[in-house]
Amino acid sequence: MKQLFIFFFLIGFSISAQDFVSVDNLVLQYPRYSEPEDLAKRIARDFKDDRSKVRAIYRWLTHNIRYDLDAYYKPKRLITFMYKTEEDRLREIQKIKDQIVKEAFLRKLGVCEEYAQSFKKVADLLNIEAEVVKGYVRNSASEIGRVPRATNHAWNTVKVNNQWMVLDATWAAGYVLNGKWVKKYNEYFFDMPPKKIGKTHYPDSKKWKIIWNSGPIEKFYNQPIYAHRFLSSPMEVMNPVEGKIYTNDSRDIVLQIKNLSPEIRLYYNYKGQQYSKRPKISYKENIAYITIQNPRRNTDLYLFLNRSLALEYKVFVQ
Which end of the chain is more exposed for a tag (fewer CB within 10 A), N or C? Predict the structure, then answer.
C-alpha cells in the first residue's frame, strides 16, 4: 500500500509536465524574440489547439524573462496622465501596458507586472481570452497576520475550452535566494488547482473572489505559508490551520497532516537554528500527528519534506 501511495504522489508532480513535453521541447528552442507579435506568429504556426498555445506562451516567458530584482527593490514612480473621456482613459492605460510589454521583450527583464501583461498581450494576439489579476501573495512567516495596504502581485487567468486556468509565470520562472534571483522553472504554477489557489494567491477584484471563494483577506493572511512542494502533493494540513501557533513553555507543538506518507522524511527547524531535527510522528488512520519540541521562545517554525521547505508558522510561547 505504501508503494502505491508513493507512486501516485510522484505522478502528481509530473503528469502536467508530461502532457506538454513536445510543446516545451519546441518552445525552448525558439529565438529570444524582441516583439510579442513575432512570438505570437511562431506559436500560431506551430500549434493548433489553445491549450498548447497557452503553454507555449507561458514556457517562453518563464524561460526568457528574468526577474528584475533592481526594479523590485526600487519600483518606478506612479505613472499619471490626463484624459477627458472614458475612451481616452482606457486608451492611455493600454498605451502604458503596451510599453510595459515592449520593455519586457526588449530587456528580457521584468517583475510580476511584466510577466502578466506580456502573457495577456500574446494571448490577445492569438485571440485567446486572458486577464491580468492583481492581488496579494505571501512569501515568508514574517507576513503571517500582516495585511498590506496595497496589492503586491499580478498573475493571469486564461480561458481554454470554456474553463478558466490560473497561471503565475513570475513564480514559475525562478526564485530569490540570498538576494539573488535563481532561474529554475516550477511546474506547479501552470494551471494551479482551483481548491489550492487560496493557499498562495488572493485576488483584489470582486469577480475572482467570488469565483475562487476567497473569503476575507484576513483569513488569507492568517494561514501558514505553503510551499509548492506541499501543494503539489495530496497532503492537507488539518491542524493548526492558522499560521500563528500559541503554546506555553512546557507543551510541545503537534501538527496534524492528512495523507503524509511514512516514506517521506520529515524535518523541522526554528529560525536561527543551524541544524534541522526529526520530529516524532504517529499515525491514526490517514492522519499523521507530528510532535515538535517546544522552542521556549517566540520564533518562526519551518517544516521540510525530504529537505524541501513545505510549511512555515509563527510560534508564540506564552
Answer: N
CATH topology of domain 231-317: Immunoglobulin-like (2.60.40)
291-313 per-position pLDDT tens digit: 999 999 999 999 999 989 999 99
Fold of 2-223: C8orf32 fold (3.10.620)
Q: Do domains 2-223 and 231-317 have the same CATH topology?
A: no
Three-state SS letters, the chain:
CHHHHHHHHHHHHHHHHHHCHHHHHHHCCCCCCCCHHHHHHHHHHHCCCHHHHHHHHHHHHHHHCEECHHHHHCCCCCCCCCCCCHHHHHHHHHHHHHHHHHHHHHHCEECHHHHHHHHHHHHHHCCCCEEEEEEEECCCHHHCCCCCCCCCEEEEEEEECCEEEEECHHHHHEEEECCEEEECCCHHHECCCHHHHHHHEEECCHHHHHHCCCCCHHHHHCCCEECHHHHCCCCEEEECCCCEEEECCCCCEEEEEECCCCCCCEEEEECCCCCCECCEEEEECCEEEEEECCCCCCEEEEEEECCEEEEEEEEEEC
Return the domain boundaries, the chain: 2-223, 231-317
Q: What pTM did the predictor assign?
A: 0.90
For residue 147, what pLDDT is reported?
Answer: 96
